[in-house]
Amino acid sequence: MIAAKQQPSVPDEPDPDAGFMREALGLADLAAQAGEVPVGAVVTRAGIIVGRGHNQPISSADPTAHAEMVALRDAARRLGNYRLGECTLYVTLEPCAMCVGAMFHARIARLVYGAADPKTGACGGAIDLPAEGRLNHHLQVAGGVLAREGGDRLRRFFAQRRGRVEAGGTEDEACR
Fold it and tell me: Is 166 among the residues known to form the active site?
């Protein structure tokens, strides 16, 4: 097993969930700068960040390149194992069904998300996969952590995109 590079938890943050979510928000900003929907994610184990990701389906021409998927791949690569059973995933937007499915397969222990997604969220927004008792893996879910900050980034991004379309540009309707 490959040891992850030691990256301590966020300093000067009394709430570790908020601290790690701030790291994810910084990654969401990177996605926005690249023209991607501003969603960011980090994976932690024992208070150390072991995986990072931000949305990149447009730039990578990969419909699976959601922030969560990129962070899970990064964590698995760093830890040398696709099973991430002692890990927590932090993401700025409620995950979709694809991403929750990947978390189940990776055996993520805990999910913390920011803004709710009533259209495609799979943790209570549109559907609630973690509450499905017939599935063989269950994870703890906490939502609403720094939800306003994540939601504000999304609203700004889409307002700017609508402004370009109204000014004669084209609309690229990438769902994430």
Answer: no
Query: Tens digits of per-residue pLDDT, 11-44?
Result: 456 789 999 999 999 999 999 999 999 999 999 9
The residues pairing with 40 across neighbouring beta strands, listed in sequence order, are 54
* Strand, helix or coil for residue 79: helix
Give the integer Cα–Cα distance in Å for 98 and 66. 9
- β-bridge pairing 87-93 and 140-142: unpaired
Assign residue 35 a region: left if phi > 0, alpha if psi is -120 to 50, beta otherwise? Answer: left
143 token code pair:
């939502």
Report the C-alpha gap between 10 and 146 in whole angstroms: 15
Quick check: helix, strand or coil at residue 54? strand
Find, among 121, 116, 113, the residue nearest to 151 by Cα: 116
Active-site residue, from 23, 36, 68, 94? 68
